[in-house]
Amino acid sequence: MTDIIHKIPDGAIIYDNNVISKVRDDLFVPDSWPEVNLMPKEIGGRGQIYFVGDGNKRFVIRHFVRGGMAAKFSYDAYIWKGAERTRSFKEWRLMRKLVELNLPVPIPAAAYYTKRGLFYRANILTQEIPDVESLAAYVIKGNTFENFWRKVGEHISRFHSIGLYHADLNAYNIQIDKDAKMWLIDFDQSQILSPGKWRFDNLNRLKRSLNKILIDNIGAKFKSSDWLELKEGYSQALRSL
Length: 241
Description:
The protein is of the alpha+beta class. It folds into two domains: 3-127; 132-240, Orthogonal Bundle (Transferase(Phosphotransferase), domain 1). The chain is 29% helix and 25% strand. It has five helices and 13 strands. The strands form three sheets. Strands 1, 2, 3, 4, 5, 6, 7 and 8 form an eight-stranded antiparallel sheet that branches. Strand 7 (108-116) and strand 8 form a beta hairpin. Helix 3 crosses helix 5. The longest helix is centred in the C-terminal third of the chain and has 19 residues, at 198-216. It is globular and about 55 Å long. The two termini are 27 Å apart. The mean pLDDT is 93.
């Protein structure tokens, strides 16, 4: 992998030329791509996420937006602290590290920021994982398979074992492809930490997400025994790693 910085007016794009060979100033403008589709809101997440393609490869553009109370003051502007401290560049570099560790995450292609005064806005571009559904979709449809929850726990343990704290571990950011391989996406504000209580906090965040799906969707299936199976798979896998 090779990092290349491409300067643009008021900002920059960092990219890997092994993933995306040529970068243009309007790379993060969805309508500049030959193929573009807006991600449906029901898939989850906040802000606008676009699937784009050039006929050969398909990517995902995600715009960084604020959540919680901070969103009431600024939808997508962040305080400037330097290029390497932008959320986009930090996430791109973290994902590169996870790919190098052979963890199941999208391949980062490029990251971008534009600066105006004391603030910046940002986007990230990753390769699309084909034919995936979120863990949330499995719960809503009740469409699980043998040892499903154990495998979810094992999946999470792979990331926790190398110290990956996922800042938004929820049922939408765990994705499952047609071959039943599990993936993890969206690493904004995530970081590598020493072992600690954060592991349990991370799991509890996922549990709250799953319980919210039960409340919001009639017919969704997630039982207390499913959670126990997940925790058992998680604990056993963590001990063996």
